[in-house]
């Protein structure tokens, strides 16, 4: 029974020393002197703010993309014991002692380091030689721009890491497909492909381009499988379902999980939550939740409410009125009704309170039991402080003459009767008998007499003149002019009115409510709103000193100064290896020309290379040229401020193409021994120049040693490069 103990237990393992060496060298190149400089470097001033907010559990919205990348940076801060207390307000500011600089920069550096062995493995999986794979890895290792970008608290190296991991995982899965379908390794690499794709998209939406590329390649491969007569219908269906699960279902589920963790961590109110709806704000600890806790859920006749415009752009605002009236005549000579002004006011104020009144009754208090207001009910809105009724009529609005003026009615006894009946329409109702709910219901007020809809036109940029205290215009808009979120309102603060007398009611309007009703949103409701804000909320793009166009990137006609030492000439720039960038462009051009030549010749039934070499050439191009195209060309369609670092994912794919083209030329075009020898010698010379350029620009890649003015001027190889030189 114990016979197996007679022989020793032996474990054998194959270790790829090339892979091990590349990994170690990659880690050294990215982690060496990682804490230097101990100062804020370029976009660390941007991402650091979010890390601090994570540490303090304060909610934020970043319109640049999903939260997964920010969470990884925050993980580095958490592992380093960062408390979030640092003022991220200036590039070059010295980090205080409580900021774990090495820990914050660690994950991007490790991601950048692992891109080196990934490049090696990708070419091996593409069936190219180990020599070509080694060349690809060394080119990634010696690329100055990739080194610079990976040594700081930035997201590009993490994005490239997940992109390359996704490509590598899919290639391993595809190669296993031929002889071990549905094995453990097959499932592992297929599932890892989906996980890596979702992580890439979760870091930056640029990762979506590579995800779409891999889905397309997977679709083409499956299309070829359909034509395989050796596969049964059941087998094909199993393959289809496996790919659907791994490449669609799991990435979607993981993407949702990023937001779930993000929203779970950030449960406290902060400055960014003001752009969210009242319901979302009320779900956060502090802020609006502190104000609205305990409010009645159902709006009833006699309710005292504040009405917030749902659009919330360019700023949140509430329906407001005050004792001042519209001027008898505007500056352009048009007349007004001279009624009490109604505006949308971007601050909390007692004049934001309104009372929901039943037109058939005089009382302004909630009855017992309360009579809830439902969809389709007719109401009057009474301004809480002045007790005048919300009104609109056929008088042109002050700034929007094609819309109706909205006012609080004053009876001047001039044959202009009040028109103050409004129909409540709950836009997000589940049925036509829905009750108007605090915070949750999005309501449209339709004027009974004119069918105009109450709209905050000021929310799209129209502010009143001095006589309106620069507050935002509110108008009555005809429904025929279309639907807009500025027509929707939700009740934010709410209490059941108890005082019929005006003096008592004014005191009541200043008092907090005490009733206890919960209004927590579901995760999917919060996710949907946050996702929509990320996609639609765009900061105003401004011209940056180091911004550039996509055309500048190919020839590296631009650079970015990341950091400058306050006293010496030491500085860090985002600059690529000139030889590598030029070689990548040449490789892409050669690939395109050769592919076109081969296609034309094959059309004439002339086959210059064997079929297996042609398939290898096409598949490599699909990955490398396709990866470059999908990560570069979309920037020509984007209306945003662009920087050189946006090109790095595309550049990575283009660099992988260089050894592919070189091996192809050596194997199929250099036919004589003399040509092969000359070609090999030229590759050695070329690679030596790559290393020399890397060494030349290392001082501005790592920030040390400090260079003299003459040395800095010598690095300015292009007039368009902005190398910083101090005035003597």
TrEMBL record:
It is found in: Endoplasmic reticulum membrane. Its main location: endoplasmic reticulum. Residues 296-359, 370-427 form the MIR domain. GO terms for molecular function: dolichyl-phosphate-mannose-protein mannosyltransferase activity. Signal peptide: none annotated. Pathway: Protein modification; protein glycosylation. It comes from the Eukaryota. The chain crosses the membrane at residues 9-32, 68-88, 100-120, 154-174, 186-219, 240-261, 578-600, 612-630, 642-662, 674-694. The keyword Transmembrane helix applies. SMART domains: MIR (SM00472). The keyword Glycosyltransferase applies. It is a multi-pass membrane protein. Keywords: Endoplasmic reticulum, Glycosyltransferase, Membrane, Repeat, Transferase, Transmembrane, Transmembrane helix. InterPro entries: ArnT-like_N (IPR003342), MIR_dom_sf (IPR036300), MIR_motif (IPR016093), PMT-like (IPR027005), PMT_4TMC (IPR032421). One of its GO terms (cellular component) is endoplasmic reticulum membrane. Its EC number is 2.4.1.109. It catalyses: a di-trans,poly-cis-dolichyl beta-D-mannosyl phosphate + L-seryl-[protein] = 3-O-(alpha-D-mannosyl)-L-seryl-[protein] + a di-trans,poly-cis-dolichyl phosphate + H(+); a di-trans,poly-cis-dolichyl beta-D-mannosyl phosphate + L-threonyl-[protein] = 3-O-(alpha-D-mannosyl)-L-threonyl-[protein] + a di-trans,poly-cis-dolichyl phosphate + H(+). Belongs to the glycosyltransferase 39 family. This is Protein O-mannosyl-transferase 1. It comes from Chionis minor. The gene is Pomt1.
